[in-house]
Amino acid sequence: MRYVLRKIGLLLLTLWAAVTLNFFLPRMMPGSPTDAAIAKLAQNGPVSPATRAAIEAQLGVPTGNIWDQYVTYLGNMLTLDFGVSYTFFPQSVSDLVLTALPWTLVMVGVVTIVAFVLGTLLGVLAAWKRGTFLDSLPTLTGTFTSAFPYFWTALLLLFFLGYVLQWFPTSGAYSARATPNLSLEFIADAAYHAVLPAVTILITSLGGWILGMRNTMINTLGDDYVTFAEANGLQPKAVALKYAARNAILPNLTGFGLALGGVVGGSLLVERVFNYPGVGYLLYNAVTNQDFPLMQALFLMITVSVLVANFIVDVLYGYLDPRTRR
Fold first, then answer.
1. 18 vs 8, 187, 301, 303, 326, CA distance in Å?
2. Percent helix, strand and coil across the chain, each rounded to 5?
3. What's the whole-number mean pLDDT along residues 161-186?
4. Which one, of 15, 194, 175, lies nearest residue 102 by Cα?
5. C-alpha separations of 16 from 77, 93, 156, 245 in Å
6. Is the CB of residue 308 less than 8 Å from the CB of residue 132?
7. Which pLDDT tens digit goes with each residue over 46-102?
8. For position 325, what pLDDT does the model report?
9. Could you say which protein family the record assigns here (predicted)?
């Protein structure tokens, strides 16, 4: 219990630091949406102070000293009130995030879990059968595919499977004539549109899980407790999974925690290539348009998800390896 309480305290401290940093970073960036709007109006002549004040009021630009803004920011954060988006005015930031988040969680989240489970199992198999065909095939394939950049793989799949063969849609999350609902017809249509971005993420991330698990487990197989288990006549499957793989999976579990936390942030380049309306695509629009309220909300959401995922991994560490509790 003391171990868990320490981790909770560290989580809260880190969360406060992330929230504070998320407040100050946009204010340290050069320029502002107000300046961009005024620059467009200035082409027709000088802009009066009254016009500037009206634009700031319309966009909801914070006023007062920095401390008052910080206190207001913390209060708004607790109520999930992130203001109005500058890019998609007058839509609220919360509505935009809630609309984009399910697409990213379903597509990127499912693919991340599948890649981790499949890659870890293949890594266990490759390490247990080291030096054989079952070792060289997944290892070489994983090394080859993990060297592909996300955007390059996405463009290849988009060109050959989307434009040349026309097997899959080239953009969007569902058909233009479809209306989002929970019917089987719409779910099948959404899954059909998610094939190319999902395969892109799976291809480029699977190799890392395979190689990481294989290399760590090979080192674990040489430990004394594994040799002792084999000498006691335990089944090879039990030795591989309950002894060698259980300890070798810890580094992979750390990487999975980071990857699972990053799911909320989406895969920016992949979503941009396929015009997939997830969080990554929303973040791209926020950055390119200097949409500070939207950027703050997305950065905060990504940070919190990574911290919570790391906290869960730390707790699992204490269960899988009791030595970490000390």
1. 15, 36, 10, 7, 27
2. 75, 0, 20
3. 80
4. 194
5. 12, 21, 42, 36
6. no
7. 666 666 666 666 555 666 677 777 887 777 777 777 777 777 777 788 888 888 888
8. 60
9. Belongs to the binding-protein-dependent transport system permease family.
DSSP structure class, residue 323: G
Extract the tokens encoding 232: 């006691």
Could you give the CA distance from residue 89 to residue 98 in angstroms, rounded to a whole number? 16
Neighbours of 62 (CB within 10 A): 16
pTM to 2 decimals? 0.73
Counting runs of H as helices and runs of E as strands, what totals does the chain give?
16, 0
pLDDT of residue 323: 62
Kindly list the structural domains of the chain, giving each domain's residue range(s) and its CATH number in brackets, ordered by start. Answer: 94-325 (1.10.3720.10)
Q: Which residues contact 88 (CB under 8 A, 6 or more apart)?
A: 96, 294
Predicted confidence (pLDDT) per residue in 183-231, tens digit: 788 888 888 888 888 888 888 888 888 888 888 888 777 777 777 776 7
To the nearest 10 degrees (0 to 180), the angle between helices 49-59 and 33-41 is 140
Locus of tokens 């935009």: 96
Q: How far apart are CA 64 and CA 209, in angstroms?
A: 49
For 267-292, give one letter per residue: b (16+ CB within 10 A) or e.
bbbbbbbbebbbbbbbbebbeebbbb
Q: CA-to-CA distance for 123 and 121, rounded, in angstroms?
A: 5
- Count CA within 13 A, CB hemisphere, residue 105: 9
Write down the pLDDT at residue 44. 59
> Residue 229: in which H helix or E strand, if any?
helix 224-231
